[in-house]
């Protein structure tokens, strides 16, 4: 090991930065974040750096470096583009036995800056010993995606209860087991879901020995329109910790693959009228599984709150006092529009966008047609394929021009994506001609013409 990682408490300590440019600014920011007092020496110091120095309660010295600048400093940073000067600063600091960092010159450093993931009070530092800082930064980026931004709050929670727990378990092993349970169970879930007060309440109950019997929890998760890359970090994290997954027909197999390997998978998919499981039975199943103490992911295509019946499912959970959280997903309209190169709004073409259900009730779509005919409004129809002839007819009848551009996007965002464009007049014909099938999204409005310039995603390349 070339460098031993240590975490340096700099609160209130004086740090010398030699240099007044961009790099000096970057290092100074970190140093100021750690609560140190800056002393910056350079003939020229940029405005932003000056403000930072003031905020740290430090001093700026507008001249060249001299050895006495080191006086009283616990850490030295050389951040100039003058190599001999940097070497001089390094030699002076080493002479005095003060830790020194020279930017981009590992051989002149006694200490180096790691790449940092800051989830204060939790801090993760990654270093390549100065040999490959880009590699260290890439690893940092991966860690950033694994560890949710609110993770630091868990450490905060632990800090608030540390003494109590220590009093309860004088034995280190017992204490460790206690905290492992806390960090991997429902208490941590509550904290990470932004319910800090509830997490504290549960932790206190656990300490007092009257923790409620383990109840499970339901995560209502939006899986996005198909491309697994469009999942959110939170969706992925919860999918990987759930014991059971209930999923729809719309959830792509590639997404299901990302769930925990040994999780039970239950298909509750719906195919229009032919429901694999009636909605009330799905609701009941969620309640039953959670009551058995299971962590259940209810995985839905797109966003659970957009034509997803997500509301109905969690109403039932709420009625039974079962904890749940909702993870938004990219809805089909956003996903398909982006991957088809059709901006849903545009200053020249559409000032508003409307998401509409095209689902037929009793063989007719009962929609407020008069509100849908403004030429500056983009319409997005979900579940609109069967009713498409009626939809196009009614729009034209109520005054939207038959020439209005329109698009069909089948299996949007996936490698099977197909896009067909036409007008309100010929859209139903395109469906028949190209055997378009579900899931397909319909976009109506001037914005569809932008696709000619903006299409970028290839998909199945069967587009007209
Ligand atoms: N909650 C989902 C919508 C469920 S309704 C969401 O937010 O996206 C189901 C309808 O969504 C389908 O009939 C279809 O119109 C649309 N849809 C969902 N995924 C789609 C996809 N990948 N491509 C095209 N349309 C899609």
Automatic annotation (TrEMBL):
Amino-acid positions noted as binding S-adenosyl-L-methionine in the UniProt annotation, renumbered to this chain: 225, 301-303, 306, 331-332, 383, 412
E.C. designation(s): 2.1.1.107, 1.3.1.76, 4.99.1.4
Keywords for the protein's UniProt record, in alphabetical order: Cobalamin biosynthesis, Lyase, Methyltransferase, Multifunctional enzyme, NAD, Oxidoreductase, Phosphoprotein, Porphyrin biosynthesis, S-adenosyl-L-methionine, Transferase
Any single Pfam family the record assigns to this protein: NAD_binding_7
Sirohaem synthase dimerisation domain boundaries: 151-206
Domain Siroheme synthase central: 119-144
Region (Uroporphyrinogen-III C-methyltransferase): 216-464
Keyword Transmembrane among record annotations: no
InterPro entries, sorted: 4pyrrol_Mease, 4pyrrol_Methylase_sf, 4pyrrole_Mease_sub1, 4pyrrole_Mease_sub2, CobA/CysG_C, NAD(P)-bd_dom_sf, Siro_Cobalamin_biosynth, Sirohaem_synt_dimer_dom_sf
PROSITE patterns: SUMT_2
GO molecular function: uroporphyrin-III C-methyltransferase activity
Reactions mediated catalytically: precorrin-2 + NAD(+) = sirohydrochlorin + NADH + 2 H(+); uroporphyrinogen III + 2 S-adenosyl-L-methionine = precorrin-2 + 2 S-adenosyl-L-homocysteine + H(+); siroheme + 2 H(+) = sirohydrochlorin + Fe(2+)
Residues annotated as the enzyme's active site: 248 (proton acceptor), 270 (proton donor)
UniProt domain Tetrapyrrole methylase: residue ranges: 218-427
Pathway recorded for this protein: Porphyrin-containing compound metabolism; siroheme biosynthesis; precorrin-2 from uroporphyrinogen III: step 1/1; Porphyrin-containing compound metabolism; siroheme biosynthesis; siroheme from sirohydrochlorin: step 1/1; Cofactor biosynthesis; adenosylcobalamin biosynthesis; sirohydrochlorin from precorrin-2: step 1/1; Cofactor biosynthesis; adenosylcobalamin biosynthesis; precorrin-2 from uroporphyrinogen III: step 1/1
HAMAP family linked to this entry: Siroheme_synth
Name of the featured protein: Siroheme synthase
Organism for this UniProt entry: Pseudomonas lutea
Name of the coding gene: cobA
């Amino acid at each position: 090991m070339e460098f031993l990682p240590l975490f340096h408490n700099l609160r209130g300590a004086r740090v010398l930065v030699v240099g007044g440019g961009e790099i000096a600014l970057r290092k100074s920011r970190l140093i100021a974040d750690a609560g140190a007092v800056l002393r910056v020496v350079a003939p020229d110091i940029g405005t932003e750096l000056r403000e930072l120095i003031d905020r740290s309660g430090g001093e700026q010295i507008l001249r060249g470096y001299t050895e006495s600048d080191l006086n009283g400093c616990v850490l030295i940073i050389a951040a100039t583009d003058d190599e001999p000067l940097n070497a001089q600063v390094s030699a002076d600091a080493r002479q005095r036995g003060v830790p020194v960092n020279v930017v981009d010159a590992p051989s002149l450093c006694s200490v180096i800056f790691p790449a940092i993931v800051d989830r204060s009070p939790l801090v993760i530092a990654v270093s390549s010993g100065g040999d490959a800082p880009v590699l260290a930064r890439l690893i940092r980026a991966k860690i950033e995606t694994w560890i949710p931004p609110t993770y630091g709050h868990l450490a905060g929670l632990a800090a608030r209860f540390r003494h109590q727990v220590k009093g309860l378990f004088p034995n280190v092993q017992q204490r460790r087991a206690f905290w492992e349970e806390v960090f991997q169970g429902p208490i941590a879930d509550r904290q990470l879901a932004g319910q800090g007060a509830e997490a504290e309440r549960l932790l206190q109950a656990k300490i007092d020995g009257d923790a409620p019997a383990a109840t499970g929890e339901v995560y209502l998760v939006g899986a996005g329109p198909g491309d697994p890359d469009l999942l959110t970090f939170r969706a992925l994290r919860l999918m990987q910790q759930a014991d059971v997954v209930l999923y729809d027909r719309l959830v792509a197999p590639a997404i299901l693959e990302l769930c925990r390997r040994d999780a039970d998978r239950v298909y509750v998919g719906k195919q229009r009228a032919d429901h694999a499981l009636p909605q009330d039975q799905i609701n009941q199943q969620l309640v039953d599984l959670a009551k058995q103490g299971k962590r259940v992911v209810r995985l839905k295509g797109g966003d659970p709150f957009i034509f997803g019946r997500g509301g109905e499912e969690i109403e039932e959970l709420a009625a039974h006092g079962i904890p749940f959280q909702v993870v938004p997903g990219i809805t089909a309209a956003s996903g398909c529009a982006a991957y088809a190169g059709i901006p849903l709004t545009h200053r020249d073409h559409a000032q508003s966008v409307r998401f509409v259900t095209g689902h037929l009730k009793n063989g007719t779509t009962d929609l407020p047609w008069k509100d849908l005919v403004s030429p500056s409004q983009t319409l997005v129809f979900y579940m609109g394929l069967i009713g498409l002839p009626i939809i196009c007819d009614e729009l034209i009848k109520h005054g939207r021009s038959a020439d209005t551009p329109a698009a069909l996007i089948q299996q949007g965002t996936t490698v099977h994506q197909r896009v067909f464009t036409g007008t309100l007049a010929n859209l139903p014909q395109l469906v028949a001609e190209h055997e378009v099938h579900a899931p397909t999204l319909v976009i109506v409005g001037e914005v569809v013409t932008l696709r000619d310039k903006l299409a970028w995603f290839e998909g199945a390349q069967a587009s007209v």
